[in-house]
DNA sequence: CTAGGATCCTGTCAGC
DNA sequence: TGCTGACAGGATCCTA
């Protein structure tokens, strides 16, 4: 999925279009993608859009919140009823051609018809979902409740304490745990570790205080850089000449750059497997043993 | 309690 | 061309 910066980008992009809009109709095309009785969101006005970690929270007037988690392949696409240009539409999340092609399509799971346009929840693998929760109960939701603080709110001391519950696991597996730091996924795990010059296979307990501090700084900086570059949206998906762009190239130094020279030392970036996930490292900048 | 692997799904791509 | 297995920007459940 869509990690913290992508969800933040969606939050920002969608707010201007759907905040204040009323939900006229909901069509659920895949039962497991929508948890809760859809009737309760009908005719409700969208009061606010928030984010916690990788979860998007859409608060409705009647005290119900739609929690949307995009997991691996979710995307949210808004099509304005009277769009005159691409600027009147918005798309974010897992980048695919669906950002532009006709909707609904095979991957559309839920359709929200609003009074200004239509919001499509697409998800190829059906891991993502829309879930209805009472707004006052969001903090008690199982996922939200155990979620660690946002990277910018987490102190180095808290980060270290959370890390040290997993002393003998590889550091990459540990920072992917949402109870340790919120919002980090496979991209930003690799980018943060490269920033801190720490090999993903190092055992968590072997990190020095200086490395831990650098790792938190790396998570903050790489995610902020992605948010600043606009995340994965329709704008970054297609370049000015119409060919496909890759928003990762705007900020990623190792992710999906295997075979390319390291920006720091020129050594070839390699792809390995850590904690069951594809992992990108510079073998010179990130030493395995220390 | 933690660590690690299987699992939920669909689609694509490499290799035979 | 067709088949097969691996893999994919996530999180949970199960077992040891």
Characterise the protein shown here.
- It is a single chain.
- This protein has 290 residues and is of the alpha+beta class.
- The chain folds into 2 domains: 4-142, Alpha-Beta Barrel (N-terminal domain of MutM-like DNA repair proteins), CATH 3.20.190.10; 156-281, Helicase, Ruva Protein, domain 3.
- The protein is built from 7 helices and 12 strands.
- Strands 1-8-9-6-7 form a 5-stranded antiparallel beta sheet, with helices on one face. A 5-stranded mixed beta sheet has the order 2-10-5-4-3, with helices on one face.
- A hairpin with a 2-residue loop joins strand 8 (108-114) and strand 9.
- The chain is globular, with a radius of gyration of 20 Å.
- It starts with a helix and ends in a 9-residue tail after the last strand.
- 40% of the residues are buried.
- The model has no long low-confidence stretch (mean pLDDT 95).
- It binds a DNA duplex (16 and 16 nucleotides) through residues 1-3, 6, 32, 54, 69-73, 94-95, 106-107, 123-128, 143, 165-169, 173, 176-178, 185-188, 232, 248, 255-256, 275-278.
